[in-house]
Write a structure and sequence with these properties.
Distance between the termini: 106 Å
Order of helices and strands: HHHHHHHEEHHHHEEHHHH
Number of strands: 4
Number of domains: 4
Radius of gyration: 29 Å
Strand order of the largest sheet: 1-2
Helix content: 40-55%
Shape: extended
Length: 402
């Protein structure tokens, strides 16, 4: 029986007809794929699948390569915003590379015209088109050899629209890697100083050993601050954790250490299919039962979640509309606090004003700022006569008031 992929028996015209039909089908499939990716991304359906981001979902669940996932997500998000891209991809006017090149320049005013101008253009032709319309400054002259090893882009699982990092890690041999990174003058000086100070322990001055020892120290410090890790933990008084948990959201240090050890410094979210989230960055301590519903910061009642799944669990518990309103309010309060600090108020004063004005009607950040300033005006005098900043004393007590 003739193999499915053996085409030697086909006449030339049939082979070309079949190829054209496959290309057309592939274009339509690509457009449909982008539409599905865009909708899954918009609904955040990667979160129930125990993936912290759409990029992780594409690599881990759909088994796309990191590069293919990155490109398709960028194209899908652009197409969702400008639906004309779907039709252009489906009928072969735009290829995937074209969509990615055009995406940063598309606006409601330019999208239709740019898509038409780029139709059926090669990647080089579209690059030239964009260079003519959006000229960039000359790059500096540079001549340097490129490494022959295949480089692995260690892209963080954050938003895929972010620019790829310049740091590269290339595997050389089993458990051996080449690190390429650009550092500033200050970092360069610190590295040389550490190398010099370690000469009595590392006479060769090998930078890999210097970096390894530096990372050991850094990890000890980070684990101490994030997970309360310590080689000599203090004994917790009986009932202290329960008492603290009843009054505050704060997770006691002994609970942090136990949860850190149990969850293995990895997001503990598990999908309905039993798959666990692989995210190890942006980890947060989370109450299994929400604190607002009586959850306590005990070891069984606390877990590590990545920020994406922490927000997802909050949406499931309280509703996405309620949480979106809460997050928008928190973002506005952070902006008001920053604005008050810029006007010279202390952090404590700014926090007090924001908290005391939270109940007042305010639809915009300007309204919230005025409400917070009103609280400060009532509590403190406007300013001391020396202009040094907000006065801590009341009007009757301030010596600058006659």
């Amino acid at each position: 029986m003739t193999s499915t992929y053996s085409l030697a028996h086909l006449p030339d015209h049939d082979l070309l007809d079949h190829l054209a039909a496959l290309v057309a089908a592939d274009q339509q499939t690509t457009a449909a794929l982008l539409a599905h990716l865009a909708e899954v991304d918009a609904r955040a359906l990667y979160l129930p699948a125990a993936c912290a981001s759409m990029h992780v979902y594409c690599v881990r669940v759909l088994h796309l390569s990191e590069d293919a996932a990155y490109k398709r997500i960028r194209a899908a998000r652009a197409a969702r915003r400008f639906p004309a891209i779907f039709a252009a991809v489906a009928d072969g006017r735009l290829h995937l590379a074209a969509v990615i090149l055009l995406a940063p320049h598309l606006t409601d005013e330019t999208a239709d015209e740019l898509i038409a101008a780029a139709s059926h253009g090669s990647k080089a032709e579209i690059e030239l088109l964009l260079a003519q319309r959006y000229p960039r400054p000359d790059v500096p002259a540079l001549l340097q050899p490129l490494p022959g090893a295949v480089q692995v882009d260690q892209r963080a699982p954050g938003p895929v629209d972010a620019a790829p990092p310049t740091t590269k890690v290339a595997p050389l041999a089993p458990q051996r890697f080449a690190l390429q990174v650009t550092i500033g003058q200050a970092t360069h000086d610190k590295l040389l100083r550490a190398q010099a100070l370690l000469r009595h322990r590392v006479p060769s001055g090998d930078l890999d050993q210097v970096i390894d020892r530096a990372l050991d120290t850094l990890l000890d410090d980070l684990e101490r601050k994030k997970f309360a890790a310590t080689h000599r933990p203090r004994a917790t008084k009986a009932g202290a954790a329960t008492k603290a948990g009843a009054a505050t959201r704060r997770v006691p240090n002994d609970v942090k250490r136990a949860v850190h050890a149990r969850d293995g410094e990895q997001c503990a979210f598990v999908s309905e299919d039993g798959d666990r989230c692989t995210e190890r960055g942006f980890l947060e301590f989370d109450h299994v039962v929400p604190f607002a519903r009586g959850g306590q910061p005990t070891v069984p009642g606390t877990r590590l979640l990545c920020s994406s799944h922490n927000q997802y669990e909050a949406d499931r518990s309280f509703g996405s509309a309620f949480m979106q309103e809460r997050r928008a309010r928190a973002e506005m309060e952070a902006d008001v606090t920053l604005g008050l600090r810029g006007l010279g108020w202390t952090a404590a004063e700014a926090r007090h004003a924001v908290a005391q004005s939270a109940h007042l009607p305010a639809a915009t950040i300007e309204d919230r700022m005025r409400a917070a300033l009103g609280v400060l005006h009532v509590r403190y005098t406007s300013r001391c006569s020396d202009g040094a900043g907000p006065c801590w004393q009341t009007t009757t007590a301030c010596s600058s008031v006659s």
